[in-house]
Backbone:
């Protein structure tokens, strides 16, 4: 079990409790909304950025200057960008 899944479970539970609490204290509605938004963002963040691929993107993609180390694999990753769609692609960097 990863830290992310533990945090999603904890914040999801807190959001559920806050939602139940709004029946008795309507002032908790704002807290409930914030907890739901934070939980959803935490749960969906990895899907948005995705894992690094070993396959090079198709034509029209431009390599950016952005590089970083992938937390899971520890490998260096290059970021590619498609100007037509705004989509980003993460490619494992080639070692020199």
Residues:
């Amino acid at each position: 079990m990863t830290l992310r899944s533990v945090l999603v479970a904890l914040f999801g539970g807190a959001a559920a409790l806050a939602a139940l609490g709004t029946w008795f204290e309507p002032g908790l509605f704002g807290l409930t909304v914030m907890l739901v938004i934070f939980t959803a963002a935490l749960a969906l963040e990895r899907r948005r950025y995705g894992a690094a691929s070993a396959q090079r993107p198709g034509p029209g993609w431009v390599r950016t200057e952005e590089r970083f180390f992938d937390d899971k694999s520890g490998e260096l990753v290059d970021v590619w960008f498609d100007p037509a769609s705004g989509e980003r692609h993460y490619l494992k960097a080639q070692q020199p």
